[in-house]
From TrEMBL, chain A:
This is Binding-protein-dependent transport systems inner membrane component. It comes from Mesorhizobium plurifarium. Belongs to the binding-protein-dependent transport system permease family. CysTW subfamily. PROSITE patterns: ABC_TM1. It is a multi-pass membrane protein. Residues 66-253 form the ABC transmembrane type-1 domain.
TrEMBL record, chain B:
This is Polyamine transporter subunit ATP-binding component of ABC superfamily. GO terms for biological process: quaternary ammonium group transport. Gene3D superfamilies: 2.40.50.100, P-loop containing nucleotide triphosphate hydrolases. Signal peptide: none annotated. Pfam families: ABC_tran, TOBE_2. Belongs to the ABC transporter superfamily.
């Protein structure tokens, strides 16, 4: 490597680290302070404790919100994986209408959540659907569909067309080809997409606030608590949500790395 | 198996992609049990022929008959043919055994029988130890053999091979050629092998079908194609050749003269009535192989040529001399002669007399 590319690589790395530090380092404040007690608005740095986490586990409202979040996440995953995969399969190899479809699928993901949320809210009111967990699930599904669609479509496009031809050639029917060749080759992309969808649903706030009924999810609960100022349990909750989301994203990356690269490495 | 009965016949089969025609009404009869190679440069339509027979593409017009029955509209998964794809198309999520057994498994063959036949098929291609590996863990040659075993296990009437050796290096390709040929003899199944490599075609085929620009130019044994090409394309494409243009002269027994810029040449028309019947004055070529051309001695009465040696290339067992002959329009002729341990006395720039025996010369119509 000559000097110039090496220099630019170093510069790029420095900028990346700087951006990451500026963006994410403030998050360490609540994480670190969640392990210390607060007395009269002052953090007592002398005695580390996990008491806030213990208190959190006993907080009935938080647990209820957590349960709601998990239920919404699970439903969203099922709907978005099924929908995204079907759309990807349907439009794979088709020329006409695909760019329009992609645009429509990606719109709610790329728009500011408040716009998507408002659009959904107005839509639900106009057709007379009561705001409830169902509307939250629909909102989340519309929001994360793009992620599943994209991951599955990418895998489909990298799949050799002759695999399907070989399956027919060996006597398989359409259904056999789908179940035995196409689906197994898509499964890791679907799992990766599902984890990402769950992670997005897990901390989605804006759309949820607008379309939810009486029940609240964890991030919405957090949002409500923060209006009264930062308390130790908020810090602990932020720390937990953060760790969980990072874990999910790391897991998703594992599934989305193409199989060939994984085997080459082993 | 009866080598003489036709297994599959193509009748005026045409194929167009949109408005672009790729096959122009070809006729072809594949004999039961033969190793037929379809040879042609890229874009000749040879892979399309294979895909039409396999059912991977619909015909534009014409028909394909199997044992006399029209199968043009038969879906791909019901045709008793199996394909070895150029990229092998092994299923990456299945083991070698899973890949080979796939064709039986989708037909609901009992599990015990599948594992017995998979073991047999892997034994046939000498991959018995690799049953539990995944395709990503195999070398190119091994994948190739898995693909072959997978195609053979369904006991197809016809195995279609789409340039399966193209991705292998030279040494491995030679081994695989012998291997394929021996397997074909062992299982006595008809093989249709598509390639652009004429050496590969000569080495393996019982018969070769030469294609160019969507037409079949000639169908015959490698020997026929080499010594009796029926057109300029085949004469030039198939092996090294000398072609000299001219106009046809009179017929004398099994020979016919052709007037060329290098003088009057006499060539054999034995067993080729169309060359005897062609009108005098029609344009054509005298064709003679580099190994048929030799340095002329006193006994050579016919077909005497002279020229200067432009290049001498040692090629191991033989040496190839490139000779410039003729006046206004220079002809480059190639002459191949056996190499000798004490070298040859010939020098570049030397003027030499050449000749070829009339029965080793051949005519093609332009």
């Amino acid at each position: 490597m000559t000097v110039a590319p090496r220099l630019s690589t170093l510069l790029l790395a420095a900028i990346t680290i700087l951006v990451a530090a500026l963006l994410y380092s403030p998050l360490f404040v609540p994480i670190v302070s969640s392990f210390f007690p607060v007395a009269r608005g002052e953090v007592d740095w002398s005695s580390p404790t996990v008491s806030t986490y213990v208190a959190l586990a006993a907080n009935h409202e938080i647990l209820l919100a957590l349960r709601t979040t998990l239920v919404v996440g699970a439903c969203t995953v099922v709907l978005s994986v099924a929908g995204g995969t079907l759309l990807a399969l349907y439009y794979h190899g088709r020329r006409a209408g695909r760019s329009l479809l992609q645009f429509i699928i990606f719109l709610p993901f790329l728009m500011p959540p408040i716009i998507s949320g408002l659009a959904l809210l107005i839509f639900f009111r106009e057709i007379g659907i009561e705001r409830s967990l169902l509307t939250v699930v629909i909102g989340h599904t519309v929001f994360v569909l793009a992620i599943v669609y994209r991951t599955v479509l990418t895998r489909l496009q990298s799949m050799s067309r002759t695999l399907v031809e070989a399956s027919y050639d060996l006597g398989a029917t359409k259904w056999q080809t789908f179940w035995r060749v196409i689906l197994p080759n898509l499964s890791s992309a679907m799992v990766g997409g599902a984890i990402l969808a769950f992670a997005l649903s897990f901390d989605e706030t804006m759309i949820t606030i607008l379309v939810t009924g009486t029940q609240t999810t964890l991030p919405v609960r957090l949002w409500a608590m923060m209006r009264l100022g930062f308390s130790p349990d908020i810090n602990a909750l932020v720390a937990l949500i953060l760790m969980f989301t990072v874990l999910l994203c790391a897991l998703a990356a594992r599934f989305l790395v193409p199989r060939q690269i994984a085997t080459q490495r082993s | 198996m009866n080598q003489n009965s036709d297994l599959l016949t193509l009748r005026s089969v045409s194929k167009s992609y949109g408005t672009v025609p790729v096959l122009y009404g070809i006729d072809l009869a594949i004999r039961d049990g033969e190793f037929l190679t379809v040879l042609g440069p890229s874009g000749s339509g040879k892979t399309t022929v294979l895909r039409l027979i396999g059912g991977l593409e619909p015909l534009t017009s014409g028909e394909i008959r199997l044992d006399g029955q029209d199968i043009s509209g038969m879906p791909i998964n019901r045709r008793p043919f199996n394909t070895v794809f150029q990229d092998y198309a092994l299923f990456p999520h299945l083991t070698v055994a899973g890949n080979v057994g796939y064709g039986l498994s989708v037909r609901h063959v009992p599990r015990k029988e599948i594992s017995r036949r998979v073991a047999e098929a892997l034994e046939l291609v000498q991959l018995g130890r690799f049953a539990d590996r995944f395709p990503a863990q195999l070398s190119g040659g091994q994948r190739q053999r898995v693909a072959l075993a997978r195609a053979l296990i369904c006991q197809p009437r016809l195995v279609l091979l789409d340039e399966p050796l193209a991705a292998l290096d030279l040494e491995l390709r030679r081994q695989m050629q012998e291997f394929l040929k021996s397997i074909q003899r062992e299982v006595k199944t008809t093989f249709l092998f598509v390639t652009h490599d004429q050496e590969e075609a000569i080495g393996m085929a019982d018969r070769i079908c030469v294609m160019q620009a969507g037409h079949i130019r000639q169908l015959g044994t490698p020997h026929e194609l080499y010594y009796k090409p029926n057109c300029e394309f085949v004469a030039r494409f198939f092996g090294e050749n000398n072609l000299v243009a001219g106009t046809l002269g009179e017929v004398r027994g099994e020979f016919r003269a052709i007037e060329t810029a290098l003088g009057r040449l006499v060539c054999s028309v034995n067993g080729q009535p169309h060359l005897k019947a062609a009108a005098a004055g029609a344009s054509g070529f005298a064709a003679f192989r580099p190994e048929a051309l030799h340095f002329a001695g006193d006994g050579d009465a016919d077909n005497r040529l002279s020229g200067t040696i432009a290049d001498l290339a040692f090629a191991g067992s033989s040496t190839v001399a490139t000779i410039t002959a003729g006046g206004d329009v220079a002809h480059r002729l190639r002459l191949r002669f056996p190499s000798r341990v004490d070298g040859s006395a010939l020098r570049v720039g030397e003027t030499v007399a050449l000749s070829f025996a009339p029965h080793e010369g051949h005519l093609v119509l332009a």
